[in-house]
Design goal:
With 318 residues, this protein is an alpha+beta fold. Helix content is 43%, strand content 18%. The strands form 3 sheets. Strands 1-2-6-7-5-4-3 form a 7-stranded antiparallel sheet, covered by helices on one side. A 3-stranded antiparallel sheet has the order 8-10-11.
Length: 318
């Protein structure tokens, strides 16, 4: 999709500016609020480093009526050492807005995007930002599984989330949505599920998402394998939070037909086993050269050193 078409897709819901030095799009109902806080095409206002767990760096911006999370795009993996926060494609956060609008049209919950911005920082490079409304009283599924490993979450809650996650992924694939980083860390669940409430999920981090007109079994299973790989790595490294019945709940919710869900599970597990060695090598290289640890490892250590449980709002993400 061309840059012009991407910006045109935002339609009347966003006010769009495009210049040589800055691209800026703001949701119409958020424009005055952000402007009063000093955040716009040319300024950041008063940003505060966020304590939220998520892809860093995250900042928060508070206004008299709302709280926002500002995500500054940064490269992951080994690429971050060469490029840091500089990107050649200024359209990336605006593509994410289009992806969020696609989900909204299909009734799938995602963080409400208030604004997107690209600012030139020299030559062909841009720094990219995305602003979303903060979601409170929620925690991400990665943190919930970590709590389950520490026996702080009832097995019923884990099973409920596995079932609901399967339904969410099924709906994503039904509307042609390919999430590029489908992991538990990018799915929020209402904190009330820790009591007796049903799980309600919100999808986060739509960067590099795609909408496919025709899904093949290979496409579906590749997306499922990304999720499976992330979960299995942590299950092996940190201990088991999921029972076999939780996997069954996920796959039967994703593909209710008996033979179909079994075929999906077998194919995903088989492909995971084949590729596991290469992925482990990549993780070892990143840990060796990056010296960066998963934020959930730090959170788990901090939690184990304190007798009081974490406030669920500390793990919400924008």
């Amino acid at each position: 999709m061309s840059d012009e078409r991407i910006l045109a897709e935002l339609g009347p819901r966003f006010r769009v500016e495009r210049g040589e030095r800055v691209w800026w799009a703001v949701r119409a109902e958020c424009a005055a609020d952000l402007a009063e806080a000093g955040f716009g095409a040319g300024g950041d206002g008063e940003l505060h480093a966020s304590a939220l767990v998520g892809r860093k760096p995250l900042f928060e911006l508070r206004t008299p009526t709302s709280a926002y999370v500002v995500r500054r795009f940064s490269h992951g993996g080994l690429w971050r050492f060469a490029t840091g926060r500089r990107f050649k494609d200024p359209s990336r956060p605006f593509r994410e807005v289009c992806a969020a609008m696609h989900l909204e049209r299909h009734g799938i919950a995602t963080a409400e995007i208030a604004a997107a911005r690209a600012r030139r920082v020299g030559g062909p490079f841009w720094e990219l930002d995305l602003v979303t409304r903060r979601i409170d009283d929620a925690l991400d599924l990665g943190d919930l599984l970590g709590r389950a490993r520490r026996l702080e979450v009832a097995p019923r809650v884990v099973s409920e989330c596995a079932r609901t996650l399967g339904q969410l992924v099924r709906r994503l694939h039904a509307c042609g949505f390919f999430h590029a980083d489908l992991t538990p860390n990018n799915v929020l669940v209402n904190a009330s599920v820790l009591g007796s409430a049903r799980a309600a999920l919100t999808l986060l981090d739509l960067d590099r998402a795609r909408v496919l007109s025709n899904w093949s079994d290979a496409d579906r299973r590749a997306n499922l394998r990304r999720l499976y790989r992330f979960i299995e790595r942590r299950e092996e490294r940190d201990g088991r939070a999921l029972r076999r019945t939780d996997y069954v709940r996920f796959f039967t919710s994703y593909t209710p037909e008996r033979e179909a869900w079994k075929a999906d599970w077998r194919a995903v597990a088989r492909d995971h086993a084949r590729a596991d060695g290469w992925h482990r090598l990549g993780w070892l290289l990143e840990r060796a050269f990056g010296k960066r640890r998963d934020v959930r490892e730090r959170s788990a250590q901090a939690s184990s050193s304190s007798s009081s449980p974490k406030d669920s709002s500390s793990v919400t993400r924008g």
